[in-house]
């Protein structure tokens, strides 16, 4: 079974088990006076506050993680579009620039898909060999010397597209290292603990129904935490940014050729 799938199953069940343990043990430790009280207003207010706090922190974390994911995806799209522009500019260039540039653009894109994506997932960094290919591509474009105005114009277009690709690549390098600040995860786990303790603090008696409901609460909370951790890093973890933009670029190269 896939390790990520195991994690998605184990974490919610572990949190559910922890919630039940806290509920049962808390029921035995809490004073008898907590079980029945005439003034439930303050207790209800605290429980509502805990629920609201957890939802607010979870929502805030999800929004930040999703924004990082969306930005990383946009950077891959921008880079792939720029590479297609370079390939298209080289299509009208004379030999040997035509073949050299298109070959290097294709090789770089293929390395991004096959080499760099796994490295970003495992090492949270870009591949040096892929960077070397990109540098060689830029040097090849800059080395073109021609007195033909049309070739010079195509070279200028290729250089501009390479600059855009380099900027997008730099952004992708930064995205691969992005992560949620530690204090937000501290807040998330703190509110999670408070939420799991809410059943014991509320004075609910331990019955089959209350145990099942508490376990379901733990499953929901655990699943939410797994989803948040999956979104944390755009290029590693359980929800990696798709490489479809580069695969589409490879397909586009074939159409241009």
Main attributes?
257 residues; mainly alpha; 8 helices; 0% strand; DUF4239; transmembrane helix; transmembrane; membrane
Can you tell me about this structure?
The protein has 257 residues and is mainly α. It has one domain (3-24, 42-255). Helices cover 80% and strands 0% of the residues. It has eight helices and no strands. The mean pLDDT is 84. This is DUF4239 domain-containing protein. InterPro entries: DUF4239.
Question: What sequence of helices (H) and strands (E) makes up the elements?
Answer: HHHHHHHH
What share of the residues does DSSP label as strand, in percent? under 5%
| Total number of distinct structural domains | 1
Please give the largest β-sheet: none
Task: Tell me the number of strands.
Answer: 0
Distance between the first and last residues' Cα:
42 Å
Helicity level: over 70%
Helix-strand category: mainly alpha
How many helices in DSSP terms? 8
């Amino acid at each position: 079974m896939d390790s990520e799938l195991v994690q998605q199953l184990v974490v919610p069940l572990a949190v559910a088990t922890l919630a039940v343990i806290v509920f049962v043990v808390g029921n035995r430790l809490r004073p008898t006076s907590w079980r029945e009280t005439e003034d439930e207003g303050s207790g209800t207010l605290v429980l509502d506050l805990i629920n609201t706090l957890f939802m607010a922190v979870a929502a805030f974390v999800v929004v930040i993680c999703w924004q990082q994911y969306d930005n990383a995806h946009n950077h891959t799209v921008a880079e792939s579009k720029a590479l297609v522009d370079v390939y298209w500019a080289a299509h009208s260039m004379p030999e040997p620039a035509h073949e050299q540039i298109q070959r290097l653009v294709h090789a770089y894109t293929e390395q991004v898909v096959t080499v760099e994506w796994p490295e970003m997932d495992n090492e949270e960094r870009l591949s040096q060999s892929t960077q070397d290919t990109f540098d060689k591509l830029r040097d090849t474009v800059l080395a073109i010397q021609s007195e033909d105005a049309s070739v010079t114009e195509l070279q200028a277009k290729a250089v501009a597209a390479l600059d855009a690709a380099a900027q997008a690549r730099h952004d992708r390098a930064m995205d691969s290292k992005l992560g949620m600040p530690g204090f937000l995860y501290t807040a998330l786990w703190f509110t999670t603990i408070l939420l799991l303790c809410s059943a014991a603090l509320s004075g609910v008696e331990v019955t089959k129904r209350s145990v099942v409901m508490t376990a379901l609460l733990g499953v929901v909370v655990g699943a939410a935490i797994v989803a948040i951790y999956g979104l944390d890093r755009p290029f590693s973890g359980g929800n990696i940014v798709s490489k479809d933009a580069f695969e589409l670029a490879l397909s586009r190269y074939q159409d241009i050729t």
